[in-house]
Batch of 4 targets.
Target 1
Amino acid sequence: MKKIIFAFLLILIVSGCAQLNVNRSSYVTPTANLSAPIIENAIAGERSVLINWSSVPNAAGYEIFRGSCAKCNFVSTGKTDKNITRYLDKGGLLGHLGDNMSYFYRVAALDSSDNLGKLSKVIKVTTIGAPQPPINPAASKGKAQKIVITWMPSDDPSVIGYKLYRSRAINTQFTMIARISGRLNSLYVDKRLKNGTKYFYRISSFNRVGATGTLSKAAIGITKFPPLPPPLVKTISNMPKRSVVIWQPSPNNDIKNYYIERSKPGENFYRIAVVGGHTTRFIDKNLDAGTTYRYRIRAIDKDNIKSKYSIIATATTKPLPLAPTQLSIDEMSNGNIMISWKKSETKDVTGYVIWKRYWLVVTEEAGKSDGTTFVDNNVKRNTSYTYWIKSVDEAGQFSKNSKEITIKTSK
């Protein structure tokens, strides 16, 4: 209730008069012997009309009538006292005048008994339209997760801000996303957008009475596209317990890192390394021998936008050499033990390591051999010895154990 009283008092102050709305129409027959006022001018405003008229002798006040056409019924819109010959029509407490709409006015003098004098001639006034949209809207391209929208500020002094609208397609409905205060403000940053996506923007101006104009032409903005992945990925296979991954750099010039992912066939990929944007080679170490691995790479730019994955490259590590077969063992006349075997079928085997176990728990390396025989002269009589052999290839990889062979020395 207090707000209503305050609003009513505010209208009284602005108009400089007691604007008391009544339902009296201009069809009422004048009963007071008062001449008609002469409307000297009418000034159109934003959703308002200011009327000035000449004073009438012996008038105790004036009543203002408004109609929607020259020959329509005019309805009372307000009154003033005898000293006020101007009236600001804002439409009343429960509404406002329209934008760019024509209204028709007549004024009559009132006597002390509120009787109506002669009505003035009709005057037509058209309110100011809603403000025009700003010109030259533009939207940025190539920024990560955001678009910068700019426009030329309106030169209409009644404009106090702008409304910004966005859509994903030019022919669909635009939704307001921002209200920018200040006529001279002409920039807005639309954030948290999807990368590699096109957006359409339109702008409208609004004035101090809240009238919003039409939308501007559309500005098209595009967020930054994700970088391209490395176009070619290769591997070097048949290396001992390691693979070398080589790739061509992404065509984008702002790559910060590459993510390298690995998996075994049938398993999920997981990241194993992050390397710099100028790196095009990676050595994957401590792998299982004779095992196939798959690799894929994605590029990460300076804005932390990830590319799609590259093609998958496959590498297989060098397998372990095969163990020797057909082991045989003999005790020599001097008590030493000679072991012989058939060489490994692996072509690059360079030697063999002979192991032995005695007293059930003691295990030690008995020696090495480049051939297919070995004499163990570190033995004791009346003792059981178990021997097995491992092949060694050029890369230093050891085979699995050969089959074991056991002998007991004589007493």
Note: DSSP finds one helix and 30 strands in the chain.
Target 2
Amino acid sequence: MRFDIITIFPEMFGSVFSKGVIKKALDKGLIEVHVHNLRDFTFDKHKQIDDRPFGGGQGMVLKSEPIFVAVEKFKRNEKTPVYLLSPQGRKFDFRLAEELAQHPQVILICGRYEGVDERVIQYLVTGEISIGDYILTGGEPAAIVVVDGISRFIPQVVGNVESVKNDSFYEGLLEFPQYTRPRNFRGMEVPEVLFSGDHSKIESWRRKKSLEKTWLQRADLLESRKLSAEEKKILEQIPTEKRGKKDESD
């Protein structure tokens, strides 16, 4: 899969993809990440990529021409998704990441300043992506998040595909608690069921803890989930004191 990132600060990506899982995926040729300087697609001697907004107002707006030229140069076919990183966009989640991982190419445009010329949004991009309800100084950090999130769904990028399926949100639930050695740390014990050797019991415990954590920390995720009779029963069995903590946070 190929990622093309269009930005006015390409140096921000210099070392970001040089470590960890993404670096291994790059070395194996499973993904490609190409970062392009928007100024390379201007035609004036000053390489101007922004200008003052028509009608007045604060700040500067990224011009439409260099963005159109850059996208048109790198877009391989009409089905290639092109997204602007913007706080006004669709919130990035595992569903969108998995959806975009099905494409051989994704183009990401990093917004800056007061935004981009509206014609980019209306006539060029597939849509806008936001990584949260807050404002960043630019779309570069968001682009990094999107590339990382999508890459996990590309075959062989993550060594064990089961680890992706067990990730938080994959089934609409937060991930169950994880433990490793030592078994006893400062009197804090690992749950005994994890040493039982009974995989059915362990799976049942993990499902229960996953539901419990989701209900306590992200109850909104359960609103869109069709709960089975067993899951409803598990939620009803959450200890009263934990229910109280959740109510207080509300």
Note: The mean pLDDT is 91.
Target 3
Amino acid sequence: MITWYAVSGAIEQGLVYGMMSLGVFMTFRLLDFPDLTVDGSLPLGAAVGSVCLAQGMPPFLALIPAAFAGFLAGSVTGILNTKFNILHLLASILTMTALYSVNIRIMGGPNLPLLGLPFVFSPLIEMGITPFLASPIVFGGFAMVAGALLFWFMQTETGQALIATGDNPKMIKSMGVNTHSMIILGVGLSNAMVAVSGALIAQNQGAADVNMGVGTIVAGLASIVVGETLFGSRAGGSSVGRCVVAVVLGSVVYRLAIAFALGIKVGEFSFQPSDLNLITSILVVFALILPQLQKRLRK
């Protein structure tokens, strides 16, 4: 049986991973660029942010180097794809693989504990707010700011060119837009958001680990698909603002669904944390076939 503590934890995780889901949304939906770099850029952001934090940098300022590192990682993938004609999936796999060693080098080991250091939600705790509420409030604020910035960027001329690059690259190229630059910029910004999410996750967990990015792309896609199914359609058939909100809410619903599944117990059977990938796959499949089932029922 799921408890209120599990529900609160799921909401907290959904919000902190919401920024990661927005980053995946940029490449997967807006740019039509399957990017596996995120499995490496999330722990990269955690590693850079944690090292900066351990060196005495304020928690909020430590997010800036993490974002810059994520942007560089995404730019490498974009450059490999556009300048060297390497398939986007292979380019992102190469970058992700290289980042595993880079992350260990940055942290000086496979993990880096952050015990006793101040975090982004520490000021609220000092004000008397319990950690039970402080972290969801802060992470919710970050998700709102990230969503608002993404919405604003997509209304700019550069943002519109980026959307057009993913929708119809030949047309936008004929209008004088450098599609290579748009791809590099889009993939870079996407991984910058993922890296900031990784830095926040490290502060929430109290440690950075080189393996914390495993399954990031699957979780991001699951959040997008669940959000689109429940709250909105794809960017081409709906406003960008609605899609941004749907992705963040989809991240929360996805984490709630996992918490609910882990709380199910039928006789001697119950899901274990090791079944997380299985649960995620089932959720994504269900979310993908649900619209088809609805159409058939309507007919």
Note: The longest strand covers residues 111-113.
Target 4
Amino acid sequence: MSSLPMASVTRQLSRRSVFEALLHRSPISRADLAKVTGLSKQTMSEVIDAFEQQGLVHQVGRTSGNVGRTAVLYELSPEGGHVLGIDLGAQRLTVALADIAGRVLAETHEPTDSRGGAWALDQIARLSERLARDNHTHPSRIRSIVLATPGVVNPKSGAIEMAPNITGLGHLNVVGLLGEKLGSPVVFENDINLALLGEIWHGCAQNVANVAFLALGSGVGLGLYVNGQLIRGENGAAGEIGYLPIGGDPLQAESRLQGCLEYQVGAAGVMRRYREAGGPDVGSVRHVFERADAGDPIAVGVVDETARLTALAAATVIATVDPQLLVLGGSVGARPDFADKVARVLLQLAPRQVEIRTSTLGKRAGVVGALSVALRHLHDEFFGVAELAAALPLPPLRA
């Protein structure tokens, strides 16, 4: 938002403070809003009247006031603006719709189209349109869309690179095509970064300023939150931990394409190592863990080695960024038994002990994080002030 004259800045700050109070204290009366914000009753009435005209607030009843008087209660209107959060995973596509107050209106998911590329983009558009239609949301009310992507967006071509588990995204202008299909610009963010933000907003990392989120499933990725800021790097590729030279020869063709660590500890790598060690073919990495739980010595060995390699990567992260908390997520990383194995190895490796927690949001972490970023963009669109760098605090996530 560009710089404004002082009177305009003051007016926008008044609007912002009222909106923040409504965001966190609804339902609330005009008198209580004035007390909370410190604004005069006249200014408060002007702001509320303007919000009502814009459709940002509505009345939700009355409450008894002093000496028998009643006061009108207000809250943010579900019609004030909507956001879409989209999580495009290798195995699962999730789309969620929320209103301006952070209320999740609907959420749906289905297996990601295995053909990838343009088919996956068509699937995103179809699922998003269906969600909006089923909830009587006109596309014009969807003011902010954020997509969690398994790779890195090339700013010149719009392609998604470094996403080997979904084919075809590296040869398409994904940014342009998806914006056309959804009828609105889409903000792209790394899926692990958004999973991390999801845990910070409404998961196991609330109120923690230094967090490392290590996700292990189809692939392996890292999100870093340092001193209250998400770390993206020069090209948005910070945290591509799958390329660490751990677990094998980083110069062999498979390692160069997929990343040395990911080639070993990603789901396909775990199943491959199980077969190479003499185990039978299995349909998914989950079966390897089930066989390990049942006492299969080959599976036990493979799982233990996967935990050891993961701990090596985690020790590298701990020594580099000094997090207060390490969160393990993903279909493999969030397994409590696996996390315990990683923690035991880390005790021998890391220069200091770090608290380890498993993700509480699980498969929803990415889409919850996408909603959090989409809400921030929407709030900033309405109430951002260039002279005030701080972002509005997000409300609790509500179903």
Note: The mean pLDDT is 90.
